[in-house]
Write a structure and sequence with these properties.
about 30% helix, alpha+beta, single chain, 6-stranded antiparallel beta sheet, 9-stranded mixed beta sheet
Amino acid sequence: MLVFLNGRLVPEADAVVSAFDRGFLYGDGLFETLRVMNGVPLDWGGHWRRLASGAETLRIKLPFASDFLRAQARELSRQNQLPEAILRLTLSRGVGQRGYSPKGADTPTLVMSLHPAPPLGPVAPQWKLHTASLRLPAGDALTACKSANKLLHVLARAEAEAAGADDALLLNAFGEVAETTSANLFWVEGGELRTPSLAAGALPGVTRASVLAWANAHALPVHETTVGPDRLHRAEGCFLTLSSLGVVEVVVLDGRAIPSSPLTQRIRAALLDAWHAEARAGSG
């Protein structure tokens, strides 16, 4: 397998990063995860904008331009013969002096790697959620970044898996629903869509934005709503959005069943149609 490392495609065994890289030492970096379909990295523009915004927040200089990296991602897919894959892009501040100060860390590290993609069937996967005991901060600028420091999410996912769930529902410090460890959350109430606001601590998901745009184009009301987890038990349906799988249906929360809504499947079908159209257009 070939890996993109700082401007070159190299064999996986040679894709090594310094033990003094600040991404390794402190989680001082960012990452993005994209679906690759027919050799085309989907929603590249949305992922790039979030990466660039996070890099500005962290004051990390992006070492390559968007068009160059997108072309390299496609070449990575071609040379690895993986037209259907998950692309992981990781940016770190690079090597600097010992300690928290970023002074001297002037050469960022950028890695892109491909991984097997889970299948995209016509029916949404069904997941069980467990409400994590750990809490996210609310109104924190860093929650808008897809930071390489995800220890809270790692521990919350471990807690959920120990409880027999697929993912963890994350609440903020006020007990409000924010997101899951790997996805944004939507639910159906009164035939309308609701989703936590970004101010609650949710990551500004790229697939979340696609669903919001689709709903707006089809005159389907969407409300950013602040709720506790009990409100989800009264939902008419609930689903997650993530770049690797699109739309995933939530069928159980904390051991209690959540009904299935036809709207979930409708949105999944629309998203997959849009992805296939982008893949066809991009590969032409």
